[in-house]
Amino acid sequence: METRHCASREETKRFTTEELRNAFLIETLFKAESLNLTYTHEDRMLIGGAIPVREPLALIEPDIRTKGFFERREAGIINIGGPGIIKANGEPYHLEQKDCLYVGLGTEEVILSSADPANPARFYILSTLAHKVYPTVKIGINEAAPVHLGDEKNSNKRTIYKYIHAEGVQSSQLMMGMTLLAPNCMWNTMPAHIHDRRSEVYLYFDMEEDTRVFHFMGEPSETRHLILQNEQAVISPSWSIHSGIGTSNYTFIWAMAGENYTFDDMEHVAMSDLK
């Protein structure tokens, strides 16, 4: 497990490209037959990727000083690969591509496996601290609440699928969903906003090998950017905008944690205020 400490808005203004990437970009999440975790002190989130091929992978407790992974945590797990199976306390949940499983506080054992080793599952994991037990629930993409936004004129026609949120699957603080950009549309979350009391993580995927996403971050008056490849993630502090444009359309998973638990808890930033 890699640990990322918080970087302040003042020091971020002086970061080189390498320092910016080291602080906020997660370059390698998915490796065959491996579970990879990154712990960020931004709202104590754990970000992970797992590709079980021939053998199952257990979601085990990393070095976080607890008796088990879910002793004080909850998680959302989204499959972005081939068909997969997650066993939570022995109960099997079958996840097709873009299906999600919420795993609640106190779950003792989570085992990840692929239905077909030739087309393995790719499990993206986002875990937050939890204070209350909510039941483990599967949410298929066809069950998630879709929101259609944008238009082709502004290159931002997209569909937002909300999996874990106040009006859907309940959690202590985790909110999680997915945004799919329509063909020929590349912009997301512009005009930009911030969440002063919540941190957020984006995972960009469904990208071709030679395409890239330019992810914009930083204070509205001090913006910076990171260039991301397929299946890379970026940590967005509460003081930072989080917006992107790709060289082609893409999909991204968003997940939030913090004090507030309202999807539209946003402080919108006027285009004239971006610098």
Spell out the blueprint of helices and strands:
Blueprint: E1 2-4, H1 9-12, H2 17-24, E2 25-26, E3 34-40, E4 45-51, E5 57-58, E6 73-79, E7 84-88, E8 91-95, E9 100-103, E10 110-114, E11 123-129, E12 137-139, E13 145-149, E14 158-164, E15 175-181, E16 187-188, E17 193-194, E18 198-205, E19 213-219, E20 222-228, E21 232-236, E22 243-246, E23 251-258, E24 267-268
Parallel strand pairs: 1-3
Antiparallel strand pairs: 2-21, 3-4, 4-11, 5-10, 6-9, 6-11, 7-8, 7-10, 9-12, 13-14, 14-15, 15-23, 16-22, 17-24, 18-21, 18-23, 19-20, 19-22
Helix and strand content put the structural class at: mainly beta
Relative strand content: 35-45%
Rg from C-alpha positions?
18 Å
Report mean pLDDT, rounded to a whole number: 95
